[in-house]
């Protein structure tokens, strides 16, 4: 069917209406379209594609939320949030941004933002572009005098709930949020040899030490002093011992790759 | 490095069947096609796999998100990323869809039909020219499958032909899409192909589809190619010069042997028509 050209014909306006329909499922007034079942094919195809990508990206969230809540969330997200990335694999980040901007569902599922971040960061770290670390050599004793090189393929998440310690079942029964609410730091990193993504909870003190090592390029001893000063902690043998234990774990896990070459 | 134009029958590179491409005992496709959107700006395991595949096969690229028909300006940052990717992997053929998938700054990640009208011809042609200037190469635009026209004022083949002429771009002739559209919209597939500027065909796609109802076929890329599409392909081979031919299979992956059988059949049809023609 071809239309006569009315003065009001505006093909870009019709495109907008068509795209809006695909996002909202509110049937539009567009001239020259076929039957409703033909038009609805587009809504179905577009929404299924987005739904599939989100379901793959957020399997724990899907397993945790009641199915009807998940559907509500992604339906509202796709209708209201402009997915700006041309890369489909980056689109799920928009769901996290949407929940952060709108607080959607947080009254009923206070952990939702954290859970989405936890799942998204795994994808982000797995897919992130390769980053060449500064040159490094083997770490030598004593650890305190080393200028560490940190694996640059990592992200740190700041979370309000320890969702990374919980199963979907735990989360489904999540009630007493005030008891668990706090400041949790999660280090997610890509292993340089296997390319597998791992995560590890770190304390705020270790986070400050890693930050000092990376940004100030200082020795571990200096980083401990800086971190302790920021948190108003006293540097004593116990603190140093516990820090060295935590740092050794980071070395074993390849979060710390080595010591700066001299 | 000199770009080598692929020939013969290639296969779309999909993560679900990566092992097929990496295996040494598979019947190798002559080239592989991938969507740059899915592979650019990545690292780690998938980047290593991509490098391995790119060392083994010539690569063609088929874009998904450039949105040539969008009302809003082209995303030149994204285009710059595509250009870098094409250079990095020495890609000789880059194609995109004659459709739009972005509107009001929101991507929809699927191929929506552009209204067939004169204004859209000029709008899309201008955008293709910008893309070609930016990339410093001709691109090929694909005739997409569509399930409803939107506010059409001219017919589909006139729309495609006018854009190809006005923008001086190449065509990616998707034979399955012609079949699907001819079925869904009740026109003659061969007549449609005959009316295209076939001298501009630089690439051919072949795929399977799924019939959802007595009057509707969906272009799924999830089924084997059916006989009437093979017939249309064979007829098309006699109309166009030799170009690369791609088998698209995007999901519902069968045993690799089934894909190989389709690839071999396409290759034998190509050889039968084009090698004979070239030898004559």
Provide an overview of this structure:
- The complex is a heterodimer of chains A (262) and B (280).
- Chain A has 262 residues and is mainly α.
- Helices cover 50% and strands 11% of the residues of chain A.
- Chain A has helices at 11-24, 36-57, 59-64, 67-80, 93-102, 112-127, 168-172, 177-180, 204-215, 220-231, 237-252; strands at 136-137, 148-150, 154-159, 184-190, 197-202, 256-260.
- Chain B has a single domain (9-275), classed as TIM Barrel (Alpha-Beta Barrel), CATH 3.20.20.150.
- Chain B has helices spanning 18-22, 36-39, 44-56, 76-88, 118-135, 156-167, 175-185, 189-195, 227-237, 256-279; strands spanning 9-12, 32-34, 59-62, 94-97, 100-103, 106-112, 140-142, 170-174, 201-207, 210-213, 216-218, 245-248.
- Chain B has an 8-stranded parallel β-barrel. A two-stranded antiparallel sheet of chain B has the order 5-6. A two-stranded antiparallel ribbon of chain B has the order 10-11.
């Amino acid at each position: 069917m071809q239309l006569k050209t009315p003065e009001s014909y505006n093909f870009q306006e019709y495109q907008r209406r068509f795209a809006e329909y695909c996002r909202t499922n509110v049937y539009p007034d567009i001239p020259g379209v076929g039957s409703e079942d033909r038009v609805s094919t587009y809504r179905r195809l577009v929404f299924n594609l987005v739904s599939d990508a989100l379901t793959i990206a957020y399997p724990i969230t899907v397993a945790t939320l009641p199915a009807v809540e998940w559907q509500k969330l992604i339906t509202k997200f796709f209708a209201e949030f402009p997915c700006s990335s041309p890369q489909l694999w980056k689109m799920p980040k928009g769901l996290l941004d949407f929940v952060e901007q709108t607080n959607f569902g947080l009254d009923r599922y206070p952990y939702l933002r954290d859970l989405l971040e936890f799942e998204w960061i795994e994808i982000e770290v797995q897919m992130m572009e390769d980053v060449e670390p500064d040159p490094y050599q083997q770490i030598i004793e004593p650890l305190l005098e080393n200028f560490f090189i940190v694996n640059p393929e990592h992200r740190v998440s700041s979370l309000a709930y320890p969702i990374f310690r919980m199963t979907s079942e735990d989360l489904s029964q999540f009630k007493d949020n005030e008891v668990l609410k706090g400041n949790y730091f999660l280090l997610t990193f890509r292993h340089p040899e296997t390319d597998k993504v791992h995560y590890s909870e770190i304390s705020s003190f270790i986070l400050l030490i890693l930050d000092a090592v990376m940004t100030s390029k200082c020795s571990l001893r200096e980083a401990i002093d800086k971190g302790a000063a920021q948190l108003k902690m006293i540097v004593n043998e116990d603190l140093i011992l516990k820090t060295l234990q935590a740092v050794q774990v980071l070395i074993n896990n390849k979060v710390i790759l080595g010591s700066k070459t001299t | 490095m000199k770009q080598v134009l692929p020939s013969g029958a290639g296969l779309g590179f999909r993560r679900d069947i990566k092992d097929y491409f990496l295996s040494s005992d598979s019947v190798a496709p002559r080239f592989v096609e991938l969507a740059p959107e899915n592979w650019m700006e990545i690292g780690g395991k998938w980047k290593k796999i991509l490098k391995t595949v790119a060392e083994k096969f010539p690569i063609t690229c088929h874009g998904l998100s450039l949105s040539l028909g969008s009302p809003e300006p082209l995303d030149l940052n994204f285009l710059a990323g595509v250009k870098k990717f094409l250079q990095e992997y020495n890609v000789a053929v880059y194609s995109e869809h004659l459709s739009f998938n972005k509107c009001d700054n929101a991507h929809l990640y699927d191929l929506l039909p552009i209204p067939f009208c004169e204004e859209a011809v000029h709008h899309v042609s201008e955008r293709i020219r910008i893309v070609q200037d930016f990339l410093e190469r001709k691109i090929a635009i694909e005739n997409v499958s569509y399930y409803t026209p939107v506010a059409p004022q001219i017919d589909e083949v006139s729309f495609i032909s006018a854009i190809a002429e006005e923008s001086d771009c190449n065509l990616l002739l998707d034979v399955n899409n012609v079949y699907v559209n001819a079925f869904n919209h009740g026109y003659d597939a061969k007549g449609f192909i005959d009316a295209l500027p076939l001298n501009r065909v630089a690439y051919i796609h072949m795929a399977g589809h799924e019939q959802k109802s007595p009057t509707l076929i969906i272009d799924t890329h999830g089924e084997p190619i059916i006989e009437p599409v093979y017939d249309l392909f064979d007829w098309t081979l006699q109309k166009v010069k030799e170009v690369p031919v791609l088998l698209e299979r995007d999901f519902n992956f069968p045993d690799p042997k089934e894909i190989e059988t389709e690839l071999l059949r396409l290759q034998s049809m190509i050889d039968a028509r084009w090698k004979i023609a070239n030898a004559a």
